[in-house]
Amino acid sequence: MDSVDSKDAEKAVLTKLGGIRDRIDAIDNQILGLLSERAHCAEEVGETKREAGEKNIKFYRPEREAQILRRVTELNPGPLAGERVTAIFREIISSCLALEQQIKVAYLGPAGTFTEAAAQKHFGQAVGTLPFMLISEVFREVEAGTADYGVVPIENSTGGVISHTLDRFVSSPLKICGEIHLAIHQNLMNKTKDMSGVTRIYSHEQSLMQCRDWLDRNYPGVARIAVASNAEAARLASEDPKSAAIAGENAASLYDLKIISPHIEDSPNNVTRFLVIGKEDVPASGNDRTSILISTHNGSGALYHLLEPLKRHGLDMTRIESRPAPDTHWDYFFFMDLNGHISEDAMQAALAELDDEAEYIRVLGSYAKAIL
């Protein structure tokens, strides 16, 4: 191809790219106009609720949000993946909600933890977040009304249940208003991206457990030190060149650390489930889960009598955990997750029978199942 042909081909490519960019600009203008229109609608919703003089106005409607996100995911024609579409629309919803009310969300901190990432995934970036060092503190802040909602971990697919969270529900009046599933990717990081002089690796005990095989293979002689959080591990590594940390990408960015090895978790399906806690009951979204707390005296067939009404009424129990009842010997609380909403007839009938059978029963909440 001579130089004339080459210049003509280059010109044709530039002309085509220019046309595509013009289309992108026009589409962006349309998107911006539609975003403004949606934001105005959100403002109208807030004004209408205030004019109605409702007491304890609920601006945040988790069941409505879940319905929107499920609908746009189902309608998504591609090529964007459903998870990306959900993330985009969640930020739109979050920003529009902030025009109605600034929501405050407490979470298990400090900043840079996976719990912070879970809170951002569920509520978006437009809410105010408040980090606390203990799960009990998150509960207390929501109970006191300092925060509207809280986000706490409840279980990990490889590490199991978080007993501190379960135990708080025994004494707390708070309800479960939602759940979040977050894929957990552990990353080895330090200041220099050089492990030759590193003598210790900091991380949360659960993260160390989730990466145990990888660490055994790659750094068997390096001390592993458990700390309160992955963010704390990253902070310590940022102050000591002989240390490294295992944490998420948020922590690496927050403390200016270099990721040496990404995704070092032993299980490729490492997911943590988080709960959103609040004070109100959540209406049905169409795809819900109900969590209950129930207790019975230890005796022959005690657990069978709790489970039998669930089977008879066709309820699907997805999880059960037992915890010792406080101030007793050999009595237990059971935490159960059931598919369905408290408003459904089958759920109502089963719970009525359990109320007669159990020593104690409380519905912790019915809420929309986690979306992507």
From TrEMBL:
The keyword Lyase applies. Residues 291-368 form the ACT domain. Transmembrane segments: none annotated. Residues 104-279 form the Prephenate dehydratase domain. Residues 11-104 form the Chorismate mutase domain. It is found in: Cytoplasm. Its EC number is 4.2.1.51, 5.4.99.5. It catalyses: prephenate + H(+) = 3-phenylpyruvate + CO2 + H2O; chorismate = prephenate. It holds the Pfam family CM_2. Pathway: Metabolic intermediate biosynthesis; prephenate biosynthesis; prephenate from chorismate: step 1/1; Amino-acid biosynthesis; L-phenylalanine biosynthesis; phenylpyruvate from prephenate: step 1/1. Keywords: Amino-acid biosynthesis, Aromatic amino acid biosynthesis, Cytoplasm, Isomerase, Lyase, Multifunctional enzyme, Phenylalanine biosynthesis. The record marks T272 as: Essential for prephenate dehydratase activity. One of its GO terms (biological process) is chorismate metabolic process. NCBIfam families: CM_P2 (TIGR01807), PRK11898.1 (NF008865). Catalyzes the Claisen rearrangement of chorismate to prephenate and the decarboxylation/dehydration of prephenate to phenylpyruvate. PANTHER family: PREPHENATE DEHYDRATASE P PROTEIN, PREPHENATE DEHYDRATASE-RELATED. This is Bifunctional chorismate mutase/prephenate dehydratase. It comes from Leucothrix pacifica.
